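so my prof wants the structure for this chain in the C-alpha cells format not the other one, which i didnt know existed until like an hour ago. anyway here's the sequence
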Amino acid sequence: MIYKHHRQKLLKSIALFLVGIFLQFLFYIPTPVLSQNSNNCSSITVPLTPEEQTYARAAWQYFVKNYQPATGFTNSTGGYPSGTLWDMGNYLMALNAARWLNLTDQADFDARLNKFLTTLSSLKLFEDALPNKVYNAATGQMVDYGNNPIERGIGWSALDVGRILAAFDVIRSCHPQYNDWLKGIVTKWQVGRSLKDEQLFGATVLSDNKTLLVQEGRLGYEEYGARGYQLWGFSAPKAIAFEPFKLVEINGVQIPVDTRDFQTTNANNYVVSESYILDGIEFGLQGELADFAARVLDVQKRRYDTTGQLTAVTEDNIDQAPYFLYNTVYANGKNWATITDANQSYPQFRSISTKAAFGWRYLFPDNSYAQKIFDAVKDLRSPDDGGYYAGIYEESKQPNKALTGNTNGLILEILYYKARGNRPLIASGSVSVSTGKPSENATPSNQANSTVTAPTPTPTDTSKITEVAVAPIPPVGSPQASSNLKLERSLSLIEKRYAEAAWRYFQANYHSKSGLIDDRSDFKGATLWGLGDYLAALHAARSLDIINPKEFEGRTRHLLAALTKLPLFAGELPSRSYDTRTLQSIDYGGNPIPEGNGWSALDLGRMLAALYNLKTCHPEYTAAVDKIVLDWSYLRVVREGILSSATVSKEEDGRYFTRVNPETRLGYEEYAARAFQLWGFNVERSAVGGEYQTASVEGVKVPIQRHRIDTNSKVNQYTVSNPFLLYALEFGLDPQMRSLFEPIFQAQAERYRRTGTLTASATTLIDRKPYTVHSTITGQGDGWVALGDDGQPVLKGRLVSTAVAFAYHALLPENKYSQELLQATTDLYNPSAGFYEGFYETTGKRAVGFTSGTNSMILQSLLYKVINRQPLIRPTTTMKSPWWVAVNKGNSGRGLPNNAIQQTKLISDGSGSYWGSTSENTSLVSGTKVTE
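here's what i got, hopefully its the right format
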C-alpha cells in the first residue's frame, strides 16, 4: 500500500510537470537576456579603414535618429513611423553589424534587441497566423501602406518572412542567448500557411474581405526568401529552383529573367541588383547564382560603356511621388525599365542606387566598374547626420534625398561583410542549390582522379535536354541494419550537425529521375569515382542514422538501377564521365561524346570498394551488386598485375584511337588496387609496396612516385593527402601504407610549425579557372605549389581542405595539429548545400564550391570515429555470391580473376586493424631514393 501511494504521488508529479512544460510552450513569455559574444561573429579579420569607419558611422546614425523607444522598432524611411517585416529584418542585420563594428556597446545592443523582441512577440498577427505586411513603428498597430490603422490587417508577405528569418538566424548564431526567444517567436507563427505547392505564398485581402493566397517571388528574390525559410527547417524546393526562366540579351549580355511577367501573372519579373547582393553577403555566391550576379553587374557596365551613364539599378524609395520605384535591368519585356509595383513607368526618376553601388563594390572588390559607381555615391550622406541618401537621379544629377533603413542597413551589412574578410554573414553560408539551365560558360567537372585536361566547353542548347527516368531495381527484401558495423557510441550533437550538413550535399544535388548525384554542385555530371563517393556517403549516412531505412533503400535501389543503364565504353567498362540527366557519356567539359572517352581504373576501384562494402554491410543487395560488376569486362583494366586506364586521342588525320596505359597516380593507384583485390584480382604490382622515390620537404622524406621500370609515365606527378586519407579510413594503415602516410602528415605539420600557415593539402575544386586545384605537398619538383590539371602553377591558389581536416582528425584525434585543422574548418558548411571545399591559405576566404568527394569524406570520417577507428570496409561473410560462382566457373571471357580467392584480408595486430595483401611476395616500402 505504501509503495502504491508513493507511486501515485510520483505519477501525479510527473503529470503536473508535463502540463507545466506544455503551458510554458503555449504561453511562451520571453525574459530579457544578455547576449554573449560569438568568436566567429566578432572575428574582424580585415578591419575597416578610417574612411570605411566614417561610412559605417553615418549609416548607423540613421537608426539612432529613427529609433522608436516605445516599440524598439525603427522607421522604414526617415521620420515616417512605419515598417514591414523586411524593414525589421534590415534593422536586425544593421544592429548586429553595429555591435561587431563597435558602433554600439553591448548594453545598448541588449537594450535595443530586448525591446524589439518584446514588441515583436506581442504583435497582433494577420488571421492569428503571420505578421501583417506593415505595422506602425511607433505603436506596433497593424496598418495599411498609408500607415492607417486597420483592424483586420492587409495580409502577409512571404518574402518579408524569409528576410526576417535570415536575420533571426544571424542573431541566434552571433548572440546565442537569444536563440530560445527567437525559436518561441517562430513557433508562434504559422509559417506553414505561407508555403504551398513547394513555393512561397503571400496573403492579400480582396475587396469582399476574403483572403487570397498569392504565389510570391521572382528569380532572385524568390530564391533568397526560400533560403531564409530553409534556415528554420521550412522547405520550398520549387522556390529554390531557378526555373522558370529564360535568357534575354541586353547590351550583349545574356541576362536570366523569370518568365512569369506582369502581363501573365499580375506580378513584376524585374531584374535588380539587391537580391544578388543580399545573397552574396549573407549566403555566399556560388555556381550558377554567382554567374547570374556577375552578368547583372556586367550588363550595367555595358550600359555605361555605351551611353556614358553610370548605372547601378535596384529598387529604392525616392523623395517625391510615387515614392517607391523599381529601377531595373529588365522588367516585363522592357530593358532598363523604371516602374512602380503596378508596372507604371517613371523613366525620368531612374537613379544610381547607393546601396547597389556599395554592394557591388565589396562583392567584387577587384572590379574597376564597381569601384567607379562606388566612388560616385560613397560620400552621399545627409549633412545633418541622418544617414546615407538613397542615390542620384540619372536625369537631373541631383541626389535622391530619401533616407531609408533599407539603404543604411544594407550598407552596414556590407561593411561588416568586408570586415569579416568577405565571409558571408550566415554562420555557415548558403548558396544556390537551384536547378535550371546552366550558363553557356559551363565549368569543367575535373575530378581528383582525372588524367585528361578538360577541354574548353562549348555552348549547348540545354533547353533540349530531356532527363532520363530510371526505374529503381525491384525491392530486395526487408532493409537490414549494417550487420557487420557496430557503433561504439552515438554521434555527439555537434558531430550530428556536421553529418547532417554533409548529407545536405546529396539532397541538394540529387537527380530524382536518374538517381544520380552530381560530382560538383555547379556541373551536371558525374564520374564513377563521384558515384562511389555517393554510395559510400549513403552507407555512412544510414549507419549514423542521418537517413532512415526507407530513404536508404530508395536511393540505393535507384543508384544501382542507374549503374546498369550507363553506356559502357567499347562495351567493356563505364566511361570516364556522364551527364547526370541524360546518362550520356560526356567529356570533362560537359560536351556529349556518344562513343565515350575511355575509362579510369582509379574510378573503377572507387566504385568497386563502395559496392563491396554495400553487399557486405547490407547483404540483401548482393545479387544486384554482383549483376552490375559481372556485366563489365576486366580484360584490359588488369594486365600483368597492373591497373591500366584507357584514353581516347584524336590523330592529325582525324581518326580517334584508344590508348591503354598503366596507372601511376601516387596514392590513387594504391587505393584502387586494394579495392580490386577485394574482388580477387591480382594487382600486386599496383598495390602498395616496393620502392618509392622521395623528396625532402620541411626536412621530411615525402613520397613523390613509385620507383618502377614498367612504365615511363610522368602524368601529373604530385603528392596530396586525399587518396592516402581515403585509403586509411576504408582499409586502415597497413605497414606499407603507414610508411607513406606518416611523412605526408608530418611535412604539413612541420610547415605549420615553421610558418604558422595551416596546411591541409588536397585536390579541390574552385569556382573559376582552372576549376580544379592540386594544393600539393610537392609537385613538379617544388614544395607547396598549387597546380592546375595542366601542371601549371595557380598563383595564390592553395587551399586548406575541409575534408582533409576532418579525416586527419578522425585518424589522429590526439594530435594537436589535426585538432588545429578541425577547429579551423568546422564552420565551413552551408545548411542547404553541404561543406565548402575549404579556405584559401593566403586570404582565409572560403573556397566557394561543393563536391560529393568532400562531403562523402566528412561523413566517412565521422563514421570512422564512432566505430572505434576500425577500417570502414568490412570483410565479407560469404564466398558463394554470384560473383564468386562466376569466378569459379572460369573462362568467362571477361577477364575475371583466375581464382575465387580475395587477394587481401583484414588483419588485426598490435598496430591496429588493416587490410593487407595475401600474397607473400608483397614487400614493404623500402629502399627509397631521396630527391633534394
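also thought this was worth mentioning. The radius of gyration is 30 Å.
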